[in-house]
Write a structure and sequence with these properties.
Elements lengths: L8 E2 L1 H11 L7 E8 L4 E8 L4 H4 L7 E6 L2 E2 L5 E2 L2 E6 L6 H18 L3 E5 L7 H9 L3
Length: 140
């Protein structure tokens, strides 16, 4: 079984983009959406969103997708933080080969980008601000 698990490397330009994204100074919500280039066996940039809300994320085809989302998180005590969230979308109905490729590459991407807030979603309709706040509540 492990022989069929494909782990893709992360494209060098994407590694640099993720590093810069981590230290961005802007205070708006933003996202980097990534996908796998099956031919090159690389995780590559699909799209960058500078100002986005969670509800607008549902408009994207989130099948087989990695998202790094910088979210303005308002704590109950009034503090504001900007956690970098990794969201892995693996919807029901994906081809098994693609699910294996994305699942196998997820940990490599998380390690490369040094992400700690890692969430998986199966139903893209669940991807809401309430869902994210609930997940982030575990860390605070």
């Amino acid at each position: 079984m492990s022989e069929s698990l494909v782990v893709c490397d992360v494209a060098e330009d994407l590694v640099e983009k993720l590093r810069k994204f981590r230290f961005r100074k802007e205070t708006n919500n933003a996202a980097i959406i990534m996908k796998i280039d099956k031919d090159k066996r690389l995780v590559v940039l699909d799209e960058e969103l500078e100002v986005c809300k969670m509800k607008s994320m549902n408009f994207f085809n989130l099948r087989k997708t990695f998202i790094v989302y910088s979210y303005k998180y308002q704590h109950d005590d009034g503090r504001v933080s900007y956690p970098l969230c990794f969201i892995f979308s693996s919807p029901v109905g994906c081809k098994p080969e693609q699910q294996m490729m994305y699942a196998g590459s997820k940990n490599k991407l998380v390690q490369t980008a040094e992400l700690t807030k890692v969430f998986e979603i199966r139903n893209t309709e669940d991807l809401t601000e309430e869902w994210l706040r609930e997940k982030l509540g575990f860390f605070h």
